[in-house]
Amino acid sequence: MSQCTQVECNGLYELTEAARAELVNSKYYNEDLAPSSVSQRTWTTYNITALWIGMAICIPSLSLAAALIGMGVSPWLAVLNVALGNLIVLIPIQLNSHAGTKYGIPFPVFSRLTFGGVGAHIPALLRAFVACGWTAVQAWVGGGAVAAILGCFIPSFRDKDWVISIFGNPCQVGQLIGFLIFMVFIGWVAYKGSEGIKLVQNIGGPLLIVVMLCLFIWSVMTANAAGFGFGEVMSQGNDGALIEQFGGFWYIYLAGLTGNIAFWATIALNIPDFSRYARSQKDQFRGQLYGMPLPMFLCAYIGAFFAMSTKLSMGTAMFDPTNVFYYVDNKIAVVICAIGVAAATITTCVAANVVAPANGFSNLAPTKITYRMGVVATCIIAVLAQPWWIYGSGAAYVFTWLNNYGTILAPVAAIFIADYYFIKQKRVDVAGLYAGPSGRYWYKGGWNVAAIIAWVAAFIIPLLGNTVMLYDPSTGVGPSFIQWLAANGYIVSFIIGFVVYVALMKNDQLSIVTEEEHEAMTEKIA
Predict the structure, then answer these.
(1) Coil/strand/helix, residue 6
(2) How far apart are CA 95 and CA 515, in angstroms?
(3) Which residues make beta-bridge pairs with 525?
(4) SS3 label, residue 507
(5) Residue 43: beta bridge partners?
(6) pLDDT of residue 31
C-alpha cells in the first residue's frame, strides 16, 4: 500500500485512486462498503432534515406516548418523557455521525475501527437483526394502511374479527395480507439505493402532515363526542390505580425514558450510513438538530392526545393509531389517510431499518454479498418475524421490545464514542479498515477483545433484570435493585460500557494513528 492513501479537502477525507485500486481485490472491500468520495457527499441540511422528519413521523413514534398513557401516566408527563428521551439519544447520534461525514465510511466499516475486522460482525449483526424486527413492525403498520385501503372495496379487510392464530399468536388476516404487500414495496424502494430513499422522503413530507392532522382531528371529535373539551384531554392527571399495576410511577416513567432513548438506539449505531453522504459536518449536525427533536415532540403530543381521547371515550387508551381505520366510515378519508400512513412508514422503514441490515449482511462477505442481496435477506427475515407480538401492547412495546434491545445496543454506541474520540483521537487510517490481517485494526485474530468484554459486562445485569428477573406486579412487592437497573437499562449499560472500554484500552498503541502518521498518509488539497 502506498504511503499516501487518503486525500483531505475542507475536512472531508477520501481514498486516493491508487489506494482504491490496491483495495479492489481485498475480500474486505466492495463498492457498497467503500468510503464515499467527496463528490458523492451531496446531502444538504435540508436533505438530512427531511430524512429525519420522514423517519420521526411514523405510527410507532405516536405509540411512544400512547404506551405510557396506557400504563397510567398523564398526557403532559408522557410528552415530556418522549421529548427528554429523544434529546438524550441525540447526543450519541451526533457524536457517531462525525466519522461518517469526515471519512465517508459506512457503519459496518466504522465497526472495524473498534471491534476489529472479524469482531465488527457483532455490532453489525446486532443492528441488523434489531432492524429486521423494526422492519417487521413498520411493515405491519404499513400493512394496516394497505388493509384499510383494500377494505374500502373488500369489506372483509375491515373486519377486525377476521383473525387466525400463527405460532399461538392471534393475527388479523386483512392486515397480514397488507403486511406482505407492503413488504414487497419496501424491498423495491430499498433496492433502489440512497437516491431512491431521498426521493421517497421528499415526496412523503406533505402527506405526513395530512396524516397527523387527520388523526388529531379525529381524536378531538372523539373526545368532544364523549363530552370532553380540547383542554380537558391534555389536562388529565395520572391514573394511580393503573400505575400501581405496572410497578409504580417512577418505575414506569424511567422504563419509558429508557424505551424512548432506545427508540433511536439503532440509528445511534449506524448513523454513519447516512452521515457519510453529508456535504459537511455543519450540514449533518444542523440537519439532525432540526429534523429530529421537534417532530418527535409533535408526534408525542398527538399520540398522547389520541390515547387519552380514546381512554376518555372508550374506557381504554388505544395504543395503535391504525386501529382508527376500523372506526371511520368515510371511504375517501380512509383512503387519503391510509396513503399518508403508508408513505410515512415507507420513508422510516427503509431509511431507519432496511439500509443498516443490508450493509451488515454485505459486510459478512463483501465480495459475495452485495447491498441489494442484503436488502432481500432483510425483507425475508422481517416476514418471518412476528410484529403482532412485538407491537401487541404498550407494555410489551416498552418493556419487552424497546428496553431489551436498547440495553444490548447502548454499550456498543458508548464503545464507539470512547474509541473514536478518546482512544483514536478522531484519526483514522481509512485504507487500514479494508486491509484485513495486514491492517492496524485487525487486533488479535480480527477481534478487539477489550470491546467484547466491555460490551458484555455492560448489558448483562440490566438485561437479566428485564428478562429472567422481570418485575411481576402480582407479587405485591416493589421492583428489586436489578429491576431498577433494567428500567434505566440504556443509560446504565452505556456508562458501564464507556468506562470499562477506556480502562481496558488505555495501554493500546497498535491501533492508534499518531498525528505525524496521519499527516504522512494524507494529501491535502484546497
Answers:
(1) strand
(2) 21
(3) 9
(4) coil
(5) 278
(6) 82
Beta strands in 287-429 (DSSP E): none
Q: Would the CA dihedral through 458, 459, 461, 465 be positive or negative?
A: positive
DSSP 143-173: HHHHHHHHHTTSGGGG-TT-EEEETTEEEEH
The stretch 50-63 carries a mean pLDDT of 83
Q: What length does the chain have?
A: 526
Q: Parallel, antiparallel, or unpaired: how do β-strands 163-166 and 12-15 relate?
A: unpaired
Q: Which tops the pLDDT comparison, 328 or 418?
A: 418
Query: Rounded to whole angstroms, how far apart are CA atoms 267 and 284?
Result: 14
Amino acid at 484: W
Do 501 and 451 contact (CB within 8 A), yes or no?
Answer: yes
Res 114: pLDDT: 97
Residue 173 · residue 309 · CB < 8 Å: no
* Of 134, 60, 140, nearest in space to 388 by CA: 140
C-alpha distance from residue 459 to each of 98, 219, 347 (Å):
25, 40, 31
**What value does the CA radius of gyration of the chain take, rounded to a whole number of Å?**
23
C-alpha cell at 65: 406516548
* 235-270 pLDDT per residue, tens: 999 999 999 888 899 999 999 999 999 999 989 998
Q: Which of 72, 44, 111 is nearest to 428 (CA)?
A: 111
Tell me, rounded to whole angstroms, the distance of Cα 352 from its chain centroid: 5
Identify the helix (H) or strand (E) that includes residue 478: none
Give the model's pLDDT for residue 372: 84
